[in-house]
Amino acid sequence: MALSRIASSTHASNLLKPLSAALSIRRVISSDSTDPLTIETSLPFISHKCDAPPRAVDTSASELFSFFRDMATMRRMEIAADSLYKAKLIRGFCHLYDGQEAVAIGMEAAITKKDAIITAYRDHCIFIGRGGTLLEVFGELMGRICGGSKGKGGSMHFYRKQTNFFGGHGIVGAQIPLGCGLAFAQRYSKEENVTFTLYGDGAANQGQLFEALNMAALWDLPAILVCENNHYGMGTAEWRAAKNPAYYKRGDYVPGLKVDGMDVLAVKQACKFAKEHALKNGPLILEMDTYRYHGHSMSDPGSTYRTRDEISGVRQERDPIERVRKLLLAHDIASEKELKDIEKQVRKDVDDAIAKAKECPMPDPSELFTNVYVKGLGVESFGADRKEVRATLP
Amino acid sequence: MATLFQGVGAVTPFSASSSLDSNKLLLPSRKSLSISDSRGSIFVYRSDALNLKAATRKQDLLIPNAVATKGETSTSAKSGHELLLFEALREGLEEEMERDPRVCVMGEDVGHYGGSYKVTKGLAEKYGDLRVLDTPIAENSFTGMGIGAAMTGLRPIVEGMNMGFLLLAFNQISNNCGMLHYTSGGQFTIPIVIRGPGGVGRQLGAEHSQRLESYFQSIPGIQMVACSTPYNAKGLMKAAIRSENPVILFEHVLLYNLKERIPDEEYVLSLEEAEMVRPGEHVTILTYSRMRYHVMQAAKTLVNKGYDPEVIDIRSLKPFDLYTIGCSVKKTHRVLIVEECMRTGGIGASLTAAITENFHDYLDAPIVCLSSQDVPTPYAGTLEEWTVVQPAQIVSAVEQLCQ
Question: How far is A86 from chain B (nearest CA, A)?
Fold first, then answer.
């Protein structure tokens, strides 16, 4: 019902647009208004062993506007990374997040930078969400020293300590126990923060997940495990890999919630609910039903195990950016032209960042040996076959 | 920054700062946690032989030293206290937990049970269940949990009930523990200590008699140390906890009940340093952990036969203390390595390569490496004895080497 209303009003606003421009009718809601706006999520939440949060989400015009801008930035960044990879400026593995932007943005909207996020290798957009700059992303992807990890990590190793983004991990599922450790540290230091541990539907079959869930539930750690279910574990569809693909239920004694991961407002509502729950009752599983347009990585065309019709179907019906665009237009927060201008600006920002990153130098050969060990106790050591400096306590 | 070691002759000058420092260690403080004041001066005890060769060294500082052989501590022989090795580990652990509220322990049965080798006995009652955490049997996950906690600034000590169980956590130790500091461009430090007993015990069977130092030695970014006496156990435990790097502390199942008198005052040993157990002239014997005792037993026989072996407990398995080893090789020109690791790919193999690469000109004979046999450790007592190096084999190897 909500969708049909939006569709008709989009049509209507398209007709009205030249008229309003000519008559300079003042817009109903301006794009930087912070007045509360309540919008319903497109799908209901499905819960397991807990009460689902309400479908009505509190947001504001400025928030929706920022959603659009941030998601457009992420989408443009990933597409640009695609071209850079094909131009052989990015090497190795490159896992793109386009299609899944709503999860990153919705999560950020519900939490603070003191809460921790840890994810696997599809981390470019989460890094941006946590405050990383486009220059750091492209620098790192191209292996330059201006990159987030000084060029030594690569696509799968983005980290941002100051805003509690803990990476960036290449081995499937290995970040889940780390996430539990982050939650443990939060509980140990009695901070009122939570940890969001993201993993995929492929990783949901790892034993580490269940071990970590057990420990988190045992000690009431403020850990929220978020399964970004894009329905394919590289080339294997979820029904071929999991006996029970209802990932939100697989925590058994841990409550779960299934969320439409393409609806940024639903993600925001679920994460807000999860944070409150985790601080009081311990861990929770969120299953984000989302989709990736690209293949698993740049070496995977993404069409051998799914049809192009399926991909374009999702893009037409469930695209997160289009959904926010329609909301903005329906509530008359922004005009088509303004949104197009934003997209142009975003494209320019991304191109500028790429140009700047291309000018950045590669790391010096001496950087090979830095950061292997920390200078603790005054030690510098280079390995078994090199002289090491004596230690003194400070 | 990183200077490549050019050749044998270049000795990096020791930074001339006093180690008699009464300032407390500078550690970043978290909001609600603060470090308690250190109880006085902290001494760094270094091995003795370096002082004897003062003429050849460019170092210009005096460091109080203690010869860390059993039963002989120079400054505090009478005022020290006697204890067993596991008690020494516990003392070191307790002092560090007292000093820094970020230090916590996690492992199987470390809390209420007191630790399967009693290293953490009484700590849970004193510090609570969250600081001395009993984990379920999920090595991969609780090691990962420790690493995640370390990323935020906590200083966990993960205990493997037996080192062999840590094979399940290999991914976490290799990828996350060792490499996170590097792949994050220096943003995260992982000040974790992973410790546990390993080595061949008394008929424990193949899976419970593993020597993991050979598997872990290639992981970049970690440090490995092996303790062998109560004195160095306590010192290394404290140093490992204070280190900003991930440290794996290898203990030995059969050494937990060794008794020794250790100083009363606080001391921390250097993690990268080898220990001169017995200075000598004829042959350098490099060893670590339990084999130190086999070597010392063989040394008695050798002395009676007229040989003068120099015995060095290398202690630091990664990185090797090539300075101490090199000085010794330059003096004796013969090297025998005695280890409990397997022959293939063991610590001895790496050490042989390192010494050959760096000190080839000083060797009069090929390096002999005595290691355990490349077999799973059998259950039968006699067979188990034959897998491990025995003192008689060490004696005959030295005799052959010194011909």
Answer: 24
